[in-house]
Write a structure and sequence with these properties.
Layout lengths: L1 E5 L4 H12 L3 E6 L4 H5 L3 E4 L5 H8 L4 E4 L10 H21 L4 E5 L11 E4 L12 H15 L6 E7 L2 E2 L6 H10 L5 E2 L5 E2 L2 E2 H14 L9 E5 L5 E2 H11 L8 E2 L1 H18 L9 H6 L4 E3 L2 H7 L7 H13 L5
Parallel strand pairs: 1-2, 1-4, 2-3, 4-5, 5-7, 6-15, 7-12, 8-11, 9-14
Antiparallel strand pairs: 10-13
Helix pairs in contact: 1-7, 3-4, 4-5, 8-12
């Protein structure tokens, strides 16, 4: 089996690559930079921009299955920063799959594509897309998800997965941000509600992708469908944040600000950054304020039914693994 993983050097991409290699697949990664970790696994690496159709076509050629993981994540930046990799890049992957006769495409989406600023409690895949978004990331990912689902057909069968807040050892997004801001004393609990949030440990997220790919075929139960992926263990958000801080030896969050104040502050900071074209990103945005003050947990019945998704690593076991990994790696 010849498999391409876009963004194979990233957090989720690398975890998927490792599982594929363990199963004996011949794996190619398309990413902007070279990865020594992938080289050690014997993975063929093609360096290029996902928004470059020539680079994508060259990477897709000769493969039978594509995991499209590469994307621009985050909550701040210009529309073009997100549109090029997330929308144009996804269209390039779809076009290349069709051009080279690739039969299966597994796309990594996000639950944020259906987030409307309110609590999401036990939602399933029937929840609609919202009318508007407060960040370019969920907006462009929603467009890309629709492109992938619409591309499903006899020649190319597709499936989209929505893993929620992936974390674990080697995380280069969520965990480092929490630890960095915790060390600087910049974290504040938003609101006083104990909002339940479900996340997904990295190994479970990667395994879900391979499980979906295994049953993906024209006319299969997963063909042209989208699925929420999480650990299935909703916990209070700030409890989990404090557990991640504890894994990194950082003191817990104690301060609290009202959710309405946080939203207003996020709006103000957005205006200041846009007006003065400041570098970096605001410490708080409206999107983040809503994310951190609402519930997010999902009905995983469809993933369990259609491709046998069963999280193998619990939150407690994942936290133990994270603490052990952090203990062996120097943190900034």
């Amino acid at each position: 089996m010849n498999v391409l993983v876009t963004g194979g050097g990233g957090f989720l991409g690398k975890a998927i690559v490792r599982l594929l290699v363990e199963q004996g697949a011949s794996v190619t990664s398309l990413a902007r930079s070279y990865s020594p970790d992938l080289a050690a696994l014997g993975v063929t690496q093609q360096q290029g921009d996902i928004a470059d159709p020539t680079a994508v076509s060259a990477a897709v050629a000769g493969t039978e299955l594509v995991f499209h993981v590469a994307a621009k994540a985050g909550v701040w930046g210009s529309y073009d920063d997100y549109y090029r990799p997330n929308v144009l890049g996804t269209q390039n992957v779809i076009d290349a799959c069709r051009r080279h006769g690739v039969g299966r495409l597994v796309y990594t989406s996000s639950p944020s594509v259906v987030f409307n600023g309110k609590d999401m409690e036990g939602c399933d895949e029937t929840v609609p897309y919202p009318d508007h978004y407060l960040s370019w990331y969920p907006q462009t990912k929603a467009v890309a998800e629709r492109l992938v689902l619409a591309a499903d057909g006899p020649g190319l069968t597709t499936v989209a997965l929505r893993p929620h807040l992936i974390w674990g050892p080697e995380d280069n997004q969520l965990v480092p941000r929490i630890l960095e801001r915790g060390r600087k004393g910049q974290l504040r609990r938003i609101g006083r509600r104990d909002c339940l949030v479900d996340t997904v440990y990295i190994d479970n997220a990667a395994q879900a992708h391979l499980a979906a790919a295994q049953v993906l075929a024209p006319g299969s139960a997963v063909s042209g469908k989208v699925y929420f992926i999480a650990n299935g263990e909703p916990v209070p958000l700030w409890q989990l944040v404090n557990q991640i801080l504890a894994a990194g030896g950082v003191t817990p969050v104690t301060g609290t600000i009202p959710s309405s104040f946080a939203y207003g502050l996020g709006w103000l900071l957005e205006q200041v950054y846009q007006l003065f074209k400041l570098p970096g990103e605001p410490r708080l945005t409206r999107f983040v304020a809503e994310e951190l003050s609402t519930a997010h947990w999902f009905d995983l019945a469809a993933a369990r039914r259609d491709f046998g998704y069963r999280p193998q690593v619990s939150i407690n076991e994942g936290l133990a693994r994270l603490a052990a990994w952090l203990d062996g790696h120097e943190q900034p």
